[in-house]
Specification:
The structure holds 2 protein chains of 2 kinds. By secondary structure, chain A is α/β, with parallel strands linked by helices. Chain A contains 8 helices and 10 strands. Chain A has a single domain, classed as 3-Layer(aba) Sandwich (Rossmann fold), CATH 3.40.50.300. In chain A, strand 9 and strand 10 form a beta hairpin. The radius of gyration of chain A is 18 Å and the shape is globular. In chain A, 45% of the residues are buried. Chain B is mainly alpha-helical. Chain B has a single domain, classed as ABC transporter involved in vitamin B12 uptake, BtuC (Orthogonal Bundle), CATH 1.10.3470.10. Chain B is built from 15 helices and no strands. The chains are: A alpha/beta, B mainly alpha.
Chain lengths: 245, 331
């Protein structure tokens, strides 16, 4: 068992982060204890931003985790502090679902702590012994989320986790994110469904690789911004509302 | 609705490795005993211990080096294939399909035709490694890691054609030296005829490489599901990738340097075991080391019993249909 004397990371900050052609001079602060939504049209740099924040993509600016330069943190400790869920994963090999989820414990000495709980939490118990490459897109997404969950990392960066999920699992994942932030964690999710925005503590709006706006959803998501950034006309009205029973 | 496959419980397949070791032992004894001079178990034993002088010469000078070379070549090709498959995250990657074997054959052929082998036996493995490295970098340039099967295989087709042309050119310009050409042809067909203790020594890097691959199993599991994902889960991906690439190249090149191009071993063996015990590399590495040796030894023995079929021909006869079946299955 690896003991970790270092303080858990509570906030991720970017200063003048740029990735040529994908992200331009972005400075922001993520967390702590907040559920943050990352919005923006296709190709606006959401995935790039999440990977930069996760320390997985080189940037010309600065990425700090609770004040420490991410470049100076070794890979296993990074894995215990910040978890990242890719937008989609191509699984060539048929590892069993449980085995894939357990990989989240690699940086913790490859133990099995929390694996069964994570499988239960993401409704994967029945699939635990199935090969991961035989699952549907939504099921695969839940496997990736469960793997991120077992890392017990205080900062969770999820790239479009809701897109492939059915409504019920989508709401459950949002609830999970809420719980993690209530417990002091930071969760950042990129998403397209603006109707989910009211669930978030904060939104960041990207367009063309630049940060256009940041703040509380009600303040940020104005009709003007939606028109400018997404090219849509926003109108409030009666709509279908889904909640967990 | 079709039933989704369940993965068999791990422990149910624990007998695989001991069974493979036993099979290997049986095949090794059979290989030592069979040949133009057939041997009873008693004579085999007398030969091994030196009690029977004729048998002793046959076994120690002719059959044992061939058997050991077969084991090392088999382990090298299947383990090299396994590492390449994890590296490229593609179960169709293997030294021969990607042109790495052709690269080392081209390196070996150039060394032979230039007469460099007169300098010393060590020249051949080195030029083979250089040729393999050139091919590996070629594949990397043509198909990125995690590239689609189509792209990867097309890169292999291109490199095989290119490096094959180099070899053919060397062959076609060096007609004068008949003996040298016979040696060159050997590399192209792949075989274990006339292997001596020198070849066994030349193949020893395989042992070192296998020992170095052994502890990478868990990391290869993570890498085989995505590079960035592995990095985010705590794997030092850059160092791991470099090690895997060097080890796979050395394994494929050493095998080719002592036995020529022996196709399909690196594809068939890891694949068969993956179907049998699942994709976990900590299980697959030992199985590929032992199973690859077993497979090559079995193919060599079968070829000898069929009247002297070359090893490369036998593995192709087994591996070709298997490969086609795999392609059909994936489609």
């Amino acid at each position: 068992m690896i003991t970790d004397a270092t303080k858990p990371v509570s906030a991720v900050s970017l200063r003048n982060a740029s990735v040529p052609g994908r992200l331009h001079d972005v400075s922001l602060e993520l967390g702590p204890g907040r559920l943050i939504g990352l919005l923006g049209p296709n190709g606006s740099g959401k995935s790039t931003l999440l990977q930069v924040a996760a320390g997985l993509l080189a940037t010309s600016g600065e990425v700090r985790w609770s004040g420490r330069d991410v470049e100076e943190i070794a890979a296993p400790e990074r894995a215990r502090q910040v978890a990242w869920v890719p937008q989609e994963a191509r699984f060539e090999f048929g590892f069993p679902v449980r085995g894939v989820v357990q990989q989240g414990r690699y940086a913790h000495g490859d133990d099995e702590v929390g694996v069964d709980a994570a499988l239960a939490r993401l409704d994967l118990e029945a699939l635990a012994r199935r090969p991961v490459n035989a699952l549907s897109g939504g099921e695969r997404q839940r496997v990736l989320l469960a793997r991120a969950l077992v890392t017990a990392a205080p900062v969770q960066l999820w790239d479009e986790p809701l897109a492939p999920l059915d409504p019920r699992h989508g709401l459950e994942v949002l609830m999970l994110a809420k719980e993690l932030t209530k417990a002091g964690g930071t969760v950042v999710i990129s998403l397209h469904d603006l109707r989910m925005a009211h669930c978030l503590d904060e939104v960041l709006v990207l367009a063309g690789g630049e940060l256009k706006a940041a703040g509380r959803p009600d303040d940020v998501l104005t009709a003007e911004l939606l028109r400018d950034v997404f090219g849509v006309k926003a109108r409030m009205g009666e709509t279908l509302i889904l909640e967990l029973p | 609705m079709t039933a989704m496959p369940f993965i068999k419980h791990d422990a149910a397949r624990d007998w695989f490795l001991p069974a493979m070791v036993l099979l290997l032992f049986v095949l090794a004894v059979a290989s030592l005993a069979s040949g133009e001079v057939g041997m009873t178990p008693a004579r085999l034993w007398a030969g091994l211990t030196g009690a029977d002088e004729v048998a002793s010469t046959i076994i120690w000078q002719l059959r044992l080096p061939r058997v050991i070379t077969a084991l090392l070549v088999g382990s090298a090709l299947s383990t090299g294939g396994l590492v390449m498959q994890a590296y490229f995250r593609n179960s169709l990657a293997s030294p021969d399909l990607l042109g790495v074997s052709s690269g080392s054959a081209a390196g070996a052929v150039v060394a032979i035709s230039a007469g460099w082998t007169a300098i010393g036996l060590w020249v051949l493995p080195i030029t083979a490694v250089v040729g393999a490295a050139v091919a590996t970098f070629g594949v990397l340039a043509l198909a990125k890691r995690g590239a689609s099967s189509e792209r990867l295989l097309l890169a292999g087709v291109a490199l095989n054609a290119l490096l094959g042309a180099v070899t053919s050119y060397v062959l076609s310009t060096g007609v004068v030296l008949y003996e040298r050409n016979a040696q060159l042809l050997f590399w192209l067909l792949g075989g274990l005829e006339d292997r001596t203790w020198l070849h066994v020594w030349a193949a020893l890097p395989v042992v070192a490489a296998v020992v170095l691959v052994w502890p990478l199993g868990r990391q290869m599991d993570l890498l085989s599901l995505g590079e960035r994902e592995a990095q985010s889960l705590g794997v030092e991906v850059r160092g791991l990738r470099r090690r895997m690439l060097v080890l796979a190249t050395v394994l494929a090149a050493t095998a080719t340097a002592v036995a020529g191009i022996v196709g399909f071993v690196g594809l068939v063996v890891p694949h068969a075991f993956r179907l049998a015990v699942g994709p976990e590399h900590r299980r697959l590495v030992p199985l590929c080391v032992v199973g690859g040796a077993t497979f090559v030894l079995a193919c060599d023995l079968a070829g000898r019993m069929a009247g002297g079929l070359r090893l490369g021909i036998v593995t192709a006869l087994v591996g070709g249909p298997f490969f086609l079946w795999l392609l059909r299955r994936r489609a």
